Structure formats: structure tokens, C-alpha cells
Amino acid sequence: MKKQKLRLYRPVSAFFSLLLRIIINYNGRINTGKWRVIATMMRKELMILWNHASVKVLDVRHQIVQPGEKITAYQLPASVFLFTVRGRAVVQLNDVMYPVHTFHVIHGGKGLTLNVSVTDNEWESYIIFYKAIIPLPSRQEIMNLLKSRNWFLSPYSIVPQQPITLLDKLDHLRSVWNSGDEDELRQLRAKGWFHLFVCELLDQMDEQEEGITQHDLVFLAKQYIHQHYAEPITLAAIAQTLNYSIPYLSKQFKRQTGHSPIDYLIGVRLEKAKDLLVRTDATLQEVAEGVGYTDFSYFIRAFKKYTGLTPGQFKEQALYVDEGSEYPMKRLRSELVFLSNETYNLIVVENHSQRDRGIDVKGRMHKLVLGLALLLSACSGTTTGSSGTQHATPVATSATEATSQPTEQQWPRTYVDALGKEVVIPKEPKRIVVTHFGMMEYFFALETPPIASTLADRMLTTFETLKPYASTATVKDIGEVRTPNLEMMADLNPDLIVAFSGTHNEVYADLSSISPVAMINNTEERSWTETLREYAKLIGKEQMAEDYITNLQTLMGEAREKLAKHKDKSVTFLRATGDGSTFYVLDDNDVSYAYDQETGLGLKSPGQYKLEGDVISLEGVTVLNPDYIFVVDHADRMDKTMAELNQSKVWQSLKAVNEKHVFPLDVSISTKGPLAIKYATNKVLEYISTNESF
Question: Residue 595: which H helix or E strand, with range?
Fold first, then answer.
């Protein structure tokens, strides 16, 4: 029997903007036959990509939303198929809105923002999270197709005429996903049913003939804007592409959206700019150019008019996002990271040129002269005292060159930094400025509080590990990580500036004009002990570092012994994302000291559970089902986080929850520094002593 036809099909891709003028005839109506040709081409491309893709099902969720309720600003952590079983709602992916009803299928790509408003009755749906990649090597034509039209990331909607067949495949998929099969077998079966679901969708596309209705002029105009916002497009260009007059297009667009096409374009550009500021380490100039602004100053003015904040102020506020924000999925991980040069992307801000920052170079020439003198001294390998007699300069090499250093505090000394530069430190540093907040705890541990740090005010008042030092040390806040306030640093007259290679290379010259600068190589491979020893060399406190390491390792050893009888019990650290149903799983990278069997706490991991984007659902936690759960969040948010979790039936079904083996930990444990490890160790010991069943 011949298959029935689809009633609606709306693909979204840059490919279609190139063909709009072919689709639309000279009378201003959309040519149904030519639209079918494009739909057929899309189906062919989808089949090519799916036939060559390596696919993994990440999660299968079932949800019921009550009338009047909403799902707001949920950023998709992976590509999804959303299948409506019953009810009506308005589903929005970024700025594309789909009025959906029973048996409506919507596809969305990773990174798109999902909003759902339920119009009447309960709205029941299933969401399949998946990841699809094209393995290499692959044919060039396939790679070109993926690059130009990546359908795995594109939004589109389908209303099939044979939904029961699709629902049958989905029911089998959900049953397999929720089964008690071992993980590998469950994944294999889930992948099989998922492929059958996709095949049925593609099969039902084969007979589509229905075109687009007249009201879709605005839809196509919006898609053109979304596809070309980074280009210097004009209202005339949009109208010409759609083959309509400018007045008619403007009238129809404003009637449906309430905005002119140009105002809509500005909104799209600035929303994308906000996303780039939060999610990437791009400079302001790069962000401006990336969203279509060639005039940097105009971009700043437009952004402030649109948001009420400068880009820098926006990024600063986005660092700590409260519930209900438009970026609920970006609260975490990056605000802690002290991992590698590439992991500071949520703490970065605009990276102005020296001229834009308004640096008073002349006012600091005396510091530059000092730097040159020190550099010449370093090159000669000697220093000259007041009497003119030359003295040998002790050399404190980096940790990669030697495993131990003499404890004599001889000054001046030369430190070989991560850039291979010999940094002459003329005297024992007393006034140290650090350009990353993660360095603070190392200097606190060495009883040498820095006089200034980036994000100092914020971290000293929010990190439990640093709060004790807020009342005992005066640490000036010098702004953001990548663009510290150079004028303030110069006024502080530091003896030494400590920065990260890679992160602060662009401001190295400016920093060097203020005082000697030691560039530290911060990598995941370097342990906290190696890092502490490295900082100790800069200030001549090598013995203090060894004493601290010995004491902390002793404390961890005691904890490890007490935990040994529970070595068969699995432990998971969950960092709430803020949407009430997803988490980051802190693994061997974030809390390696917790799972280290030789020198750490010796806890047992429940097994790896990796998702693209590092997000796991509540259903995913049930797969882990650990014996003990540590919920990680800011102290002032913990009660609210736990209250939300306790309302979930899925959460209540977990073994650790039923046995009351859920414990709170402050977010600062993820820095992996000495204070973080000491805090986490003491907290675990505290929970052991007060929870005998642990």
C-alpha cells in the first residue's frame, strides 16, 4: 500500500537560502514543485550522512508538561529528536517557532536553545538525545556535504501521516534504554531501534509533495537573516532574495513579529554575540566581526543599548548565572577550572589592544627601564652590587628540569619560566600579583598572600576554601583573567607578577613593563604537588612547600585508610547545571585526588559516563546509581538545589538517596589546588564520622 504523505516539512539550512529565488516564482508565490525538488535533495543528503555516520544514543527522556507551564532557555547538550505524543505546545529552537500538536516530530542540533510553552491540556513528549559523527577517513564529497549542510545540527520539523509506526519504534527504544541490561548491550540495542526510527522518518519523507503556504514569507525571511547575519546584508538584499518589494516585506514582517527586519537582524546578531562572549574565549573584536559588525565602536554601543551592559559587564555577570537566566546550562565547570591553558573560556573577557585600554605607557617608562636592566642582568648571568662587584645569580629552574631545589633563600635568583625566559627576581617577593584566581590558594598555602588577583572579590566571598582568608589578607581585585587591569597593577608596585603561558601571552609585554613576570605552564598533567613546588621556587619557600605536601598527604592517607573498608562502594560527584534535571559528572580530571588509589582518597568511581558537552540527565544518574553521591554547588545555592532534586521521583529512586548517602560539597573542590584538596578531605572525614553507615 502506498504510503501517505507528510503534511508539513520545514528544513532549515543555508543551502535553501541559495535556492529561494528559484523556489519563488515571479508572481510572488512559492513554487510547490520546486520546493519538492529541494525536499527530495534534502532527503538524499540525509540518507548519505546517516549511512556514513557513527551514532550513539545518549539519553531517552519522557516528560509531561502541564498547561501554562514552560521549558525556558534549555540549551541542547546534544542533537535531539522531540516527538509529541499528545497535547499542543509552541516549541522554539533559537528564534524559530513551531506550533506542535500530537505526533509532531522536531529535530534540533547541539547548542540550540529550546523553549516550550504549553497551550492547552497536558503536553506529553519524548526526547531522544544522540550524537552522530562522520568517521575519518571518509570520501571528500561526504566531508564537503557535512561542512556545508550539517543536518545533524540543523533544526527542522515533520508531521508524519503514519505516526504509529514511529511511535512503535520509539516505544521499543525507550524500553531498551530503561532496561537493566549491561551498558554495552543496552547501547547496541538502543542504537538499533534508533536507526529504525530514523529510517522510518526518511521513508515517510519520500512521498512528500505539499509545499509552503503564503504566510511562510516571514519564516523564510527570518531564516535568511539567521543564515547570513554575519554578512553585511541589507533590507534590500533580503527583499531581492525573496523576490518581494521592500515595503511589502517590511509590512508583513512587522505584522507577524512586531519588529522590522533590520531590528530583527540586530537582535539576532547581538544574541549571537552574547552566546560567543559566554561560550568562547574570542576577543571583542573577533566577536564583533563574527556577528557582522565591521565598526567595533558601533558594536559596543549597539550591545549596550540592547542589553543595558557593555560586553565586559555582560561576561562578568554571566560568570555566575542564576536560575531563570537565558544561559542556565553555562553556570559551571568553567568558573572553577584550573586545568589547562584551554579551560578558562568562561572567565575570559574582551581583549582590547593597548590603545583601546588606554594604557599610560609613558607613566610607566621607569618600570620598563627596570625591566630592561633586569633582562640585561639575566643575559649576563650576573648582578652588580652597589660596590660594582659582580655576584653569581642562583638559578631556580622549572619543575621540568629538576625534581628538587635547594632551600637556601638566596637573592637575587633566576627562574626559567614556561616560555624559556630567564626571569631575574632581585629580592624575595613580598608584593606578588597573580593573574588567575586559581593561583591564590597556592600562595595562601605558602603563607604569602598575593596583594592582587583577578576576580579576587568574587572568589574570596564565594569559595569556601578561600573565605577564611578574606578577613586576614587584603587582595585587590584587578578585573578579569585575560585582561587584568594593568593600571591598577602598576599602581600596586609589585615585586613579581605570576601569569599563565598561553592565557596571558598577549599581555606579556605590558606585564613585563610593570615588574618581573614569571610565566607558569599550567597543564592537566601537572599534579598539585608539582605546582606547589613551582610556586615555592619563586618566593624561596621550598621547605614550606615540602612540609605542606607531607602534612596534606598524611591527612589524605588517614582518610584513605578509614575508607578502605568501603572500597567496594561507588562514589559520584555531581555538579548541578541549574535546570533541575542535569549534571556535570566530576571525573578523574576534576577531582582526581578523590579517586587516586595510591596518594588520594582511594574512592571507587561508578564507571565512566561521558557525554558530549559533559552533561548527564537524572536518568543517566540512575545508570550510574552510585552508593554515595556528593552534590557540588555554591554554598548559598545548596539548599535550593537539594530541594529541587528531592521533588524528583527519579532522584528519589536512587540507591544513595534512599540510604541517605547524599552529601553537599562546595564548588571550590574542582580547582584541584592544595586548599581544595584539604577542604574536600576534611569534609569527607567529617561525613564518615557522622554517618557510620558510610
Answer: helix 592-595
> How many other CB atoms are there within 10 angstroms of residue 673's CB atom?
24
Phi-psi category of 447—alpha, beta or left, where left has phi over 0 and alpha has psi -120 to 50? left
Sites in the chain below the pLDDT cut of 70: 1-39, 161, 164, 181, 206-216, 297, 313, 316-409, 523-525, 578-581, 587-589, 607-615, 688-694
The pair phi, psi for residue 131, each rounded to 5°, is -130, 130
Query: In this structure, what DSSP letter does residue 403 have?
Result: S
User: All 3 cell numbers of residue 458?
Assistant: 568574587
Half-sphere exposure of 83 (CA within 13 A, CB side): 25
Residue 370: CB partners within 8 Å, gap ≥ 6? 515
**Residue 342: per-residue pLDDT:** 32
CB 390 within 8 A of CB 383: yes
- Residue 498: strand pairing partners: 434, 518
pLDDT, position 60: 92
Handedness of CA 330, 332, 335, 341 (dihedral sign): negative
Q: What is the pLDDT of residue 680?
A: 93
DSSP annotation string for 404-462? -------SSEEEE-TTS-EEEE-S--SSEEESSGGGHHHHHHTT---SEETTHHHHHHH
Contact 443, 460 (CB under 8 A): no
DSSP letter at 484 equals B
Predicted local confidence at residue 550, as pLDDT: 96
| Helix residue spans in 456-539 (DSSP H) | 456-462, 467-470, 486-492, 508-512, 528-539
Q: What is the pLDDT of residue 449?
A: 96
Q: Do the strands 628-633 and 571-576 form a parallel or antiparallel pair, or are they unpaired? A: parallel
Number of H helices, E strands in the chain: 28, 23
Our measurement of the distance from residue 300's CA atom to the centroid of its chain's CA atoms, rounded to an integer in Å, reads 24
SS3 394: coil
Handedness of CA 463, 468, 470, 474 (dihedral sign): negative
Q: Which pLDDT does position 11 carry in this prediction?
A: 40
Nearest to 498 by CA among 579, 433, 444: 433
Indicate whether this model's pTM tops 0.90: no
Q: Which residues of 548-568 are buried (b: 16+ CB within 10 A; e: fewer)?
A: bbeebeeebbebbebbeebee
Specify the pLDDT at position 447: 95
Vertex 560 angle, CA 654 and 584, to 5°: 40
Domains and CATH numbers, the chain: 8-205 (2.60.120.280), 216-318 (1.10.10.60), 356-540 (3.40.50.1980), 552-690 (3.40.50.1980)
Cα–Cα distance, 571 to 594 (Å, whole number): 9
* pLDDT computed for residue 615 by the predictor: 61
